[in-house]
Design goal:
The chain has 143 residues and is of the alpha/beta class. It has one domain: Response regulator (Rossmann fold, 3-Layer(aba) Sandwich), CATH 3.40.50.2300. The chain has 5 helices and 5 strands; from the N terminus they run βαβαβαβαβα. Helix 3 links the parallel strand 3 and strand 4.
C-alpha cells in the first residue's frame, strides 16, 4: 500500500534531516512511501487541499505555539490524514494536548531516528491496510 507522506518543517536543515531519516528507514524495509516537503503552514494547507496526503510529519517549529490549532484544523478538514508531530525536547508537556488535537504519535526531535520513523510508518501502513479492507467489506455488505 502506498503511503503519501508530506514532511513539513520550516528550514532546510530539518527537511534534510527528515529526508535522510526516511531514506535510511526505507533502506531497512522498503515500504511504498512517496514523500514531499513543505516549509510553511500555508504551503502545508495548500498541499493538503491539492492532493491526497496520508501522513503529515509535522515539525513543531513550523507553527510554534499555533501548532495545536494547526493540527486540529488539518484533521478537521482532512480527517483521513494522520499527523506525526515532532516536538522540541524542551516541550514534552505538549504530548497530551497533541493527542487531544488528533496526533497519531509525537516524539521529541532529539529522540527520533530511522528505527523510530520506520516503526511509525509500519504501524500507519498496517492501519491503512486494515481500514481499506474494512471499507471494502462494508461496501460489499451495504447496498
Amino acid at each position: 500500500m502506498r503511503v503519501r507522506l508530506l514532511i513539513a518543517a520550516p528550514d532546510t536543515t530539518s527537511l534534510d534531516l527528515y529526508q535522510r531519516l526516511l531514506e535510511a528507514a526505507l533502506a531497512m524495509l522498503p515500504l511504498d512511501v512517496v514523500a514531499e516537503q513543505v516549509s510553511s503552514a500555508a504551503a502545508l494547507e495548500r498541499r493538503l487541499a491539492e492532493a491526497r496526503i496520508d501522513v503529515v510529519l509535522l515539525d513543531w517549529a513550523l507553527a510554534g505555539p499555533e501548532s495545536l490549532a494547526l493540527i486540529s484544523s488539518l484533521i478537521e478538514h482532512h480527517p483521513h490524514v494522520r499527523v506525526v508531530a515532532i516536538l522540541p525536547l524542551a516541550l514534552p508537556q505538549y504530548r497530551v494536548q497533541l493527542w487531544k488535537a488528533g496526533v497519531c504519535v509525537g516524539a521529541p526531535k532529539e529522540n527520533i531516528d530511522q528505527e523510530w520513523l520506520l516503526s511509525t510508518l509500519c504501524l500507519i501502513t498496517r492501519a491503512m491496510e486494515r481500514e481499506a479492507r474494512a471499507r471494502a467489506e462494508l461496501e460489499r455488505i451495504l447496498p
